[in-house]
């Protein structure tokens, strides 16, 4: 099947890295096939959803056989562009930002934080997790079109002006950890990660949909 023609729903696309990571481990352990039940158990996605997701990839599991691990892996590699590393900038080297820099997403991923910015003179000039920290004043000097993604871990009240500058420099996607709602032009994608909301929603589900 022609990979270029595959149009995957967003919810499915979001689960791809999860599947990919698990299948890579399976492959490394020498497994050739996997059932949707096994996958479901490992990635905690129900097996009906997995079957539907995989049908978009042209992978139709056979009863009693499951899915071909090699086929899926080569599909995911192509779709996720694993050979190409996407460079990321981080703004705000505080508690959260420092944790991300130390973690740096390389282990199972195709993204890498390559530079960070802060206004705190005590942090500027340091390397955190091997990543250089520059002063925010130098944003325009260092950030170019090769860096399409930025992570925002600054105080909420400075999030918007920094976002405007990031967009001006050619950033296309922003992972926003601040509580601020960001205004961006239509072609810019913002993913807002609000841990308080996530936590609340978890508590809600526990309360209203308790496990048997
Ligand atoms: N720490 C958490 O667990 C957590 C969880 C959810 C959301 N958040 C949100 O993430 C953001 C960061 O949280 P934190 O705990 O890391 O805060 P923090 O105060 O530890 O870090 C903020 C960092 O941003 C820097 N900064 C301030 N103004 C700046 C500017 N104009 N340009 C660049 N850098 C600037 C500060 O010097 C500091 O290093 C906040 O908006 C917070 O609400 C934090």
TrEMBL record:
CoA-binding domain residues: 81-181
Protein name: Redox-sensing transcriptional repressor Rex
NCBIfam families: PRK05472.1-3, PRK05472.1-5, PRK05472.2-3, PRK05472.2-4, PRK05472.2-5
Superkingdom, natural source: Bacteria
Species of the source: [Anoxybacillus] calidus
GO cellular-component term (any): cytoplasm
Pfam family, one: Put_DNA-bind_N
An MF annotation (GO) of this entry: DNA binding
Subunit (UniProt): Homodimer.
